[in-house]
Design brief:
Rossmann fold, 6-stranded mixed β-sheet, 28% strand, binds adenosine-5'-triphosphate, ATP hydrolysis activity, ABC_transporter-like_ATP-bd
């Protein structure tokens, strides 16, 4: 078996009485693209800092490619983009990237790194004059200049507009197609859904879900059916609706019913047959947002691990 890109074992970090990271086990295989999701304060950035060896764990360990994180970083195998990581404001973009490139043994050319980050046209722009989104992409160029096998990105698209985000993920796809392992923390559920092949959700310092986007969404499997029963028949219909096939959850507000079904086709067929006064029927699939809310609004210390020991 190839050495994992990242191995976190019983990893913990306390700040006083706060368990910011509360015993995490995680193996990231080489070539995986993993999204780290979680509400504010869940422990994502602290986990990333521990993974990169930037902070010492209270207990447990983190290794990159089987070695101490700092060794992997010095060897240029790991590139990182952290929240608030600064570039020297009075240098140009290309000078900033060249400074970092000089610290590595076999870096990409500065032009190549800028090309990968989609910022070739900003080469001579002063860092202090960059917009928030341009600065993020310049920091991405710095992260890739060592030609890393593993990229760790903390909210890489924060401050980017929609077009910049799309462009960023296009560059990222080129890297992942070549087998680069990527771990990124994000608040954008659609990014995790679209670009990651594995999603880990953290809440209150713990991993509460770990699986493919489809597996995470399946936590809130089923579809919602919403309809009204007109003509004053809502009371009489309520019992029938409750007994429809595959109904899991039923709510009623006056003559409007909302139910969750594990098999919306058969529920709908029976509804139309047995409640002919049902009107304005809407069927909606549950989304990544629903899964995220379900997993992170549960008691913070409850685990819903979907797949273990991936
Ligand atoms: N240096 C520190 N000293 C004390 N508490 C800290 C420190 N760094 C983080 N924390 C706390 O640890 C918890 C986890 O923070 P962390 O930044 O890892 O969360 P996060 O999931 O990255 O949040 P966000 O999405 O807001 O960036 C928070 O309660 C935070 O206030």
């Amino acid at each position: 078996m190839t050495t994992p890109a990242i191995q976190l074992s019983s990893l913990r970090k306390d700040f006083g009485h706060l368990h910011a990271v509360d015993g995490i086990d995680l193996t990231v295989r080489q070539g995986e693209v993993l999204a780290l999701l979680g509400p504010n304060g869940a422990g994502k950035s602290t986990t990333i800092d521990l993974t990169l060896g930037l902070s010492r764990p209270t207990a447990g360990s983190a290794t990159l490619f089987g070695a101490d994180p700092r060794a992997a970083i010095v060897s240029g195998r790991v590139g990182a983009m952290l929240q608030g990581g600064a570039l020297l404001p009075e240098t140009t973009v290309s000078q900033s990237i060249a400074l970092v490139a000089a610290a590595h043994r076999a870096p990409l050319s500065v032009a190549d790194a800028m090309e990968r980050a989609g910022i070739s046209e900003l080469a001579h722009q002063r860092v202090s004059k960059l917009s928030g989104g341009q600065l993020q992409r310049a920091r991405f160029a710095v992260a890739v200049v060592s030609d890393p096998q593993l990229l760790i990105l903390d909210e890489p698209t924060a401050a980017m507009d929609v077009e910049s985000r799309r462009e960023f993920w296009r560059s990222m796809r080129e890297l992942t197609a070549q087998g680069t392992t990527v771990v990124f923390a994000t608040h954008y559920l659609d990014e995790a859904d679209s670009y990651a092949d594995r999603i880990v959700i953290m809440n209150a310092g713990r991993i509460v879900a770990d699986g493919t986007p489809a597996e995470v969404k399946a936590v809130v499997s089923g579809r919602s059916l919403r309809f009204a029963v007109t003509g004053g028949g809502a009371d009489a219909a309520a019992e029938v609706i409750r007994s429809l096939p595959a109904v899991r959850d039923l709510r009623r507000l006056a003559d409007v019913f909302t139910l969750v079904s594990d098999d919306s086709d058969s529920t709908l067929r029976e509804l139309l047959r047995r409640v002919p006064d049902a009107r304005d029927i809407e069927i909606t699939s549950h989304s990544m947002d629903d899964a995220f809310l379900a997993l992170t609004s549960a008691a913070p210390r409850t685990a819903h691990t979907i797949t273990e020991g991936v």
